[in-house]
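Sequence in, structure out.
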Amino acid sequence: MKFFYKMFLGMTVILAVALGMIEYVTLSYSLEHAVKREQDSALSQHQMIKYSIETVILNMKSEDVDKELTDMMSQSAKSIVGEEGGMYLADDDGKRIYANSCNYEQKDIKVKDGTLTYSIVSKENTKDTGEKQSGRYIHVKSSFKLNDNRYILITESDITPVFDESKELRYRCSVYYIVILAVGMMVILILSWMITKPLAGLTATTKKICRW
């Protein structure tokens, strides 16, 4: 009987560890791939927005470019960044020219010339339900220079659905893990019994022979 328990517990532990590793790799790869896809999309969107703004600035004839740019962005920002997109446009000193849902403190804006960086940030929003909810966003930052003026552009893309889908996938994987482990334990129990039963009979017979 001791051999039966050892075999059952040993095979159960191996199955549990194997299923856990498969679940971890599946979730990690899925989330990493989804976030990478959103990063590429955010970088591409940022470049298109920057080119649009550069075109607008080059076509401006007013001496007060920042004021005209602020007025223009207030009118046409949605057509540039979309309904859900966020944008922050500032001058060389970090002073805001235009911003919608993407707000930054002036002291927090640090972008080197000619660089394009991104980061994933968490912040609260009040979309859809009107209640505060925690969300994940990709912020892409860059700087560019036109007509002797330097500008800082930050764009924001909501990737909260990616993490919501990851949570849902994790829940489904946990359910599958429990079901497969339970079924596997039943199969292991039957196999262990089938393997150890002849051994138990042989052991009993050996003991009887020794008594004779």
